[in-house]
Design goal:
Pfam family, one: E1-E2_ATPase
Family: Belongs to the cation transport ATPase (P-type) (TC 3.A.3) family. Type IIA subfamily.
Structural class: alpha+beta
Shape: elongated
Membrane topology: Multi-pass membrane protein
Catalytic activity: ATP + H2O = ADP + phosphate + H(+)
Main location: membrane
Helix content: 40-55%
Length: about 950
């Protein structure tokens, strides 16, 4: 551990728990004040101000966020955007050099620039709105706390705490800084947000042996909660210097991971841009020696480059991902980054926390054993909704357990009291969660703990301690004036103090045979992964009875088995992930036995002996040994792990080429959430730190949403491939006629750059978006995850692009040169204003638009006939295709648009010819699918595979 700086020793706040050369937890309570340069009366007001100026406020740094203008500017750094910006700038320059200036060149430059602005606006709007949903980190730290200043108790803002402050803690308080306890009365704290351990842990003010800081029983830490008892403590670390701050620094230092789609889109952009520039330069070099005007030739080559760049792709990709975001939002999953939607589809490993993720983080009594019989208890969580079978048989047992408890059950707000699940979740326990579970069980049996306490008020208490492992209370009956002691604790320790047993309402001597039966019942409950408590009672002489007398000669009432129940939907979600080829690894700070019991309940573990590894074992492994462990058995549980362990495991999986999703709800999960390919935080029960680090937040805390999100993510990837095939196939139809005209010596282009932009952004975007909204295919979760190395442009995808694009290119070349040759005019005499030429380029543009209508239908499936899934099953696609054809008709017939695009009106026969070519494309694709189904029945399904 690092050395604790006492005030005046250094420039910053304390950074550890050592004082005067010794670990602070080893210092006697009375010496803690001197070690931290304070007193039992607390700091003086002036001293507090001085220290606050020196050490800074007790708060974590706000999450660094880019300004709005920087976020907007980042949208223009995409390679497609850069290429188009350069193309627009060069086109403006060409316009300036032309004599006389050509209005068409100016319109082209403006159109290209508008494309970039449109794409950037869509991407910025989507990501900005999602990012605004992230909540502030500061909400994790309590707003106020109680401190002693000049000997007086005051309530001050938590951000004003400084090292040396003496704080007062009570049950229900959230701890505002790292503190050393100097007084502790029956104190226990919940460290789940920091360590992941679900059970409350006891705390003491006594000195302890040196050891890891987080294991010190006389220290409490920022971000944890006091569940029972009262205490005084001295602050020794604030803000970033706390253990909570250390985890925050780990999360902040973890670089954001690029998703597989980001990497593939970037690679695709580089390749497409390179090909476009190369072909444009080659055509420029070919046409200049032929005597063509330099500027016109340059604009021509630029038009070819524009034809190869899919201008509509960034906007289509962003909006398609946004569709996935909205679909997930309807399933209570908030995605803060668009590309994270697709990343889930490629997930191969899910590293999941236990408490609050797989379980409900609410201890629940599920079995009660009394009088030789077991009585199940229905209902889960802290809502007293459910029942105990045969409540009369267990009434005395549950009454004793409720009386011997210090917790309090807090009902929901009146506005939230309903029979809904949401209402149930708002019940909470003030105090120890185990005792809260006992109160809930008592209420399910028809017992009112408050009424019982009023009828038999407590007059004495012997608190629980870890040595004797039990707690006892003494009560005086208002009716009879008699006194009774009620005891609860660990079954073995309590059983040793019992001489009798309550057997169906009668007291019997606890014979060896009955004792063996109790032990067997305890073992049976424990084998189910339940935490078992025993309860007993005895009459006593009065309130001044000694502890030994109150806890001896007892009559055993029975056993209570409880657990933190798994979420009911988790098992089905685990099965769905397993079916999809996704490996689930539990990574938790909890005890191995507890972790294994929960893992078995949710089907993460099915084998008799899964591999269980603790954090201590991970410390002894080098990277090679860790890689070997992760490559080993599929059923792996990592327990008692720290945030550093979780991050190391995530990195090791990624080193092996896995796409890793991490789920969690505590601050201890934040570094791993940030470092993962996709971090998934719980929205309702999760800490703000976890939600800040994650890129996806499950608003309903349902692990089942993971499987749903994976299904949607895979669908998004399939749909992206569908509209990539759709978009790039028509790029071939735009390019081939230009190349053909060049090589046959035709002086003009068969399609202009402005026409290309009209197709890319006017006719093609809406059908591409409709393809992006295709529902998931039925077998999407029956396929293994795709490899991180798998490319968007696989051989199958390229083959379909060339096949479909080749058919379109053939059709438009035929109609163009048929029109030109039918006129009987030599090539050299054609001008841009020639009516035949304008009809021909209109046929080319219309031919691409019409064939794209049929192409959109063709790419909906890879192997299955589109007629089998139904031509009308995606009405948005039909509507989008009709819109594109309608826009093309407007460009052909409206004089204003004819002037912009240099088009001419088409005859009905022309449209019939174009429709025939489109139908030919669909027929050819249906023939290819039939051949695949007939000759390759075992081939993998999926777009492009």
């Amino acid at each position: 551990m690092t050395q604790l700086l006492t005030p005046g020793d250094g420039p910053g706040p304390p950074t550890g728990a050592e004082a005067a050369g010794s670990p602070l937890q080893t210092v006697a309570p009375g010496d803690v004040f001197a070690a931290l340069d304070t007193s039992p009366r607390g700091l003086g007001a002036a001293d507090a101000v001085t220290r606050r100026d020196r050490y800074g406020p007790n708060e974590l740094p706000r999450a660094g966020r880019r300004g709005v203008w920087r976020q907007l500017a980042a949208q223009f750094t995409d390679l497609f955007a850069i290429v188009l910006l350069v193309a627009s700038a060069i086109t403006f320059l060409a316009y300036a050099l032309q004599q006389p200036p050509d209005a068409g060149t100016f319109r082209l430059a403006v159109a290209i620039l508008a494309v970039v602005v449109l794409n950037a606006s869509i991407g910025f709007a989507q990501e900005y709105s999602a990012e605004r949903t992230a909540q502030s980190l500061q909400a994790m730290v309590p707003h106020t706390c109680r401190v002693l200043r000049d000997g007086e108790r005051r309530e001050v803002p938590a951000r004003e705490l400084v090292p040396g402050d003496v704080v007062v803690l009570e049950a229900g308080d959230a701890v505002s800084a790292d503190c050393r306890l100097v007084e502790a009365h029956e104190v226990s704290v919940n460290n789940a947000a920091l360590t992941g351990e679900s059970d409350a842990v006891g705390r003491t003010g006594d000195a302890e042996a040196a050891g890891p800081l987080l294991e010190a029983r006389n220290c409490v830490f920022m971000g944890t909660d006091v569940v029972a008892g009262t205490a005084k403590a001295v602050v020794f670390a604030t803000g970033p210097a706390t253990e909570f701050g250390r985890i925050f620094r780990l999360a902040s230092a973890a670089p954001g991971q690029k998703t597989p789609l980001q990497l593939q889109v970037a690679s695709m952009a580089r390749r497409v841009a390179g090909v476009a520039l190369a072909i444009g330069a080659a055509l420029f070099a070919v046409r200049v020696p032929t005597g063509q005007p330099f500027v016109e030739t340059f604009v021509f080559a630029l038009g070819v480059m524009v034809a190869l760049v899919p201008e509509g792709l960034p906007a289509t990709l962003s909006v398609s991902l946004a569709i996935g975001v909205r679909r997930m939002a309807r399933r209570h999953a908030l995605v803060k980054k668009l590309l994270a939607v697709e990343a889930l589809g490629s997930t191969t490993v899910v590293c999941t926390d236990k408490t609050g993720t797989l379980t409900q983080a609410e201890m629940t009594v599920t079995q009660v054993w009394a009088g030789g019989a077991s009585h199940p208890v229905s209902g889960v969580g802290y809502a007293p909704v459910g029942e105990v079978t045969d409540p009369l048989a267990v009434r005395e047992l549950l009454r004793a357990a409720a009386l011997c408890s210090n917790a309090r059950l807090v009902p929901p707000l009146a506005a939230d009291q309903s029979g809904s699940r949401a209402g149930h979740r708002s019940w909470r326990v003030l105090g120890d969660t185990t005792e809260g579970a006992l109160l809930v069980a008592a209420e399910k049996a028809g017992i009112d703990p408050a009424a019982e306490e009023d009828a038999a008020p407590r007059v004495a208490e012997n608190p629980f301690d870890s040595v004797r492992k039990m707690m006892s209370t003494v009560h005086r009956s208002r009716d009879s004036g008699t006194y009774h002691a009620y005891v609860k604790g660990a079954p073995q320790e309590l059983l040793a103090r019992c001489t009798g047993i309550d057997w169906k309402g009668e007291r019997r001597a606890l014979t060896d045979e009955l004792r063996a039966e109790v032990v067997a019942a305890n073992d049976e409950l424990a084998s189910q992964g339940l935490r078992v408590l025993a309860a007993a009672w005895r009459p006593v002489s009065g309130s001044d009875v000694t502890q030994d007398e109150a806890e001896s000669g007892l009559t055993l009432l029975g056993l209570l088995g409880m657990l933190d129940p798994p979420r009911p939907e988790v098992s089905a979600a685990v099965d769905a992930c397993r079916q999809a080829g996704i490996r689930i690894v539990m990574v938790t700070g909890d005890h191995p036995l507890t972790a294994e019991a929960v893992a078995r309940r949710v089907d993460i573990v099915r084998q008799a002996a899964p591999t269980v590894v603790t954090g201590a074992s991970l410390d002894s492994m080098d990277d090679d040994a860790l890689d070997g462990l992760l490559a080993g058995p599929a059923e792996l549980l990592l327990c008692r792990v720290s945030p550093e362990h979780k991050m190391r495991v995530v990195t090791a999986f990624q080193r092996r080429g896995e796409v890793v999703a991490v789920t969690g709800d505590g601050a201890n999960d934040a570094p791993a959430l940030k470092h993962a390919d996709i971090g998934v935080a719980m929205g309702a029960s999760g800490t703000d730190v976890a939600r800040e680090a994650a890129v996806m937040v499950l608003l309903d805390d349902s692990f089942a949403s993971i499987a749903t999100a994976v299904r949607l993510g895979r669908s998004v990837y399939q749909n992206i491939r569908k509209f990539l095939i759709y978009l790039f196939s028509h790029n071939i139809a735009e390019l081939v006629p230009i190349l053909a005209a060049t090589f046959v010596g035709f002086p003009l282009v068969p399609i202009t750059a402005v026409q290309i932009l009209a197709i890319d952004l006017g006719s093609d975007v809406l059908p591409a978006l409709a393809l992006g909204a295709e529902p998931p295919e039925p077998d999407v979760m029956d396929r293994p995850p795709r490899s991180r190395r798998e490319r968007l442009f696989s051989a199958g995808v390229m083959g379909r692009i060339l096949f479909l694009g080749g058919i379109q290119a053939l059709g438009v070349c035929v109609v163009f040169f048929w029109h030109i040759h039918a006129a009987g005019i030599p090539y050299s005499r054609f001008t841009e204003d020639d009516a035949v030429y304008r009809e021909a380029i209109t046929m080319v543009q219309a031919g691409i638009v019409v064939s794209q209508f049929f192409n959109a239908l063709a790419v909906r499936t890879e192997r299955q006939s589109v007629f089998r899934i139904g031509l009308l099953s995606n009405p948005w696609l039909l509507a989008a295709g009709c819109f594109g054809i309608g826009l093309m008709a407007a460009i052909s017939y409206l004089p204003a648009l004819q002037a912009v695009f240099h088009t001419a009106p088409l005859a009905a026969a022309d449209w019939a010819v174009l429709a025939g070519f489109g139908a030919l494309l669909l027929a050819a694709e249906e023939t290819r699918k039939w051949w695949l189904r007939s000759h390759r029945p075992g081939a993998r399904k999926g777009a492009g595979r």
